[in-house]
Amino acid sequence: MLGSALDTVLDRTLVPGYSRIGYLLRRPGWSGDRADPPRGALAGRTALVTGAGGGLGEAIATGLVRLGATVHLLVRSRDKGVAAQDRILAAVPGLSRDRLPVQVCDLGELADVRAFATRFAAEVDALDVLVHNAGLLPAERSETSEGNELTLAVHVLGPLLLTRLLADTLAAGAERSGTDSRVIIMSSGGMYAQPLRDDDLQFRTGDYGGTAAYARTKRMQVVLTGLLADELAPRHVTVHALHPGWARTPGVTGSLPLFDKVVGPVLRTPAQGADTAVWLAAAPSSAVGTGRFWHDRTPRPAHYLSRTRETPAQRERFRAEVGRLTG
Fold first, then answer.
1. Where is this region: Disordered (predicted)?
2. Which residues have CB under 8 Å from 280's CB, separation 6+?
3. Cα angle, residue 210 at apex, residues 325 and 9 outer, rounded to 5°
4. Rounded CA gap, 11 and 25, in Å?
5. Strand partners, 61
6. Potential cystine with 291: which of 229, 257, 302, 306 (Cβ 3.0-4.6 Å)?
7. Segment 120-123 long-range contacts (CB within 8 Å, at least 24 positions apart)
8. Residue 87: what pLDDT?
9. What's the mean pLDDT in 173-188?
10. Residues ≥6 apart with Cβ < 8 Å to 106
């Protein structure tokens, strides 16, 4: 078993810890509560995975359906969703298509999120797992039709609104199963370099950079995890954030070609990057708690640098502003 001191060194030194090297070194030590969930652990459960048309989203959906869940694939393009559905069906023998419904919604457009949530809640009586995976890294600043900066809309506003609109459905899942329903937010290790910018959520000041906007909104996701964990705890819904490490996905290879060229030989597979999200969906409640930030089935610090630590007042301003933006 990998010692905790070595695990911490791997985590802090990034390249070994975030790459497939860290995954392969840690995996033999996953036992007890951190062991692989048993086959059928999610039988009879329902999950919704956003950004499920490829990459980590498709890998998460594959892992959840292998554990017995019915997994709704939420995508912007139905054609892309059906293609992912076909690949998962080919990868999991004996799986029926009705275990992988395709749902269409643009998470950046809040009116579309509201319409989708209404449809989904009418279609699905109870939801056990909601995975917020959809993401993007734009080269230039742009806004949605509703005037929100795109990364903020897709990474923060859309997930917040969808979670709140499906709170009753998630609570019904907890009541049906007798355990907690789970909201899982795919953040990024890049958030460690950024503080919470509660004063400029829309990135209207300074020189815009896609990588910085991505990391800033990933920091916001971690703060949002704590806020939603407190909000949803009375309804037996737990909330978890994680970073997947460095995985080879179309998003990485397309948006960060230089990073892919340099680190490509040690990037994780999508399944390795998806591992902790799948484990969080099925692990014992006592092992996962709520409101934590995870990597490789282990809770991690939300901050490494003192300059990134937000104050309670900043968290409250952030809560109030995202609440205002999502109505």
1. 307-327
2. 182, 184, 240, 242, 288, 294
3. 105
4. 12
5. none
6. 229
7. 120/48, 120/72, 120/166, 120/169, 121/165, 121/166, 121/168, 121/169
8. 98
9. 98
10. 76, 112, 113
Q: Is 18 considered catalytic here?
A: no
Higher pLDDT, 143 or 258: 143
Query: Collapsing DSSP states into helix, strand and coil, what is residue 90?
Result: helix
Distance between CA atoms of residues 164 and 168, nearest Å: 8
Instruction: State how far the Cα of 50 lies from the Cα of 76, in Å rounded to an integer.
Output: 9
Give the helix/strand (H/E) hosting 48: strand 46-50
Residues 175, 186: contact at Cβ < 8 Å? no
252-291 pLDDT, tens per residue? 555 666 555 667 688 999 999 999 999 999 999 999 999 9
Range with the poorest average pLDDT among 14-28, 117-131, 308-322:
14-28
List the single range of 186-195, 238-247, 252-261, 282-291 with lowest mean pLDDT.
252-261
The residue type of 62 is: T
- The chain-wide mean pLDDT, for the chain, equals 94
Smallest Cα–Cα separation from 191: which of 243, 232, 143, 227? 243
* Maximal C-alpha separation, the chain: 53
Q: What is the DSSP letter of 99?
A: G
**Beta-sheet pairing, 70-75 with 102-104:** parallel
d(CA 154, CA 230): 22
Contact 99, 70 (CB under 8 A): yes
Closest by CA to 182, choosing from 124, 243, 131, is 131
Q: Read off the tokens for 111.
A: 């009116």
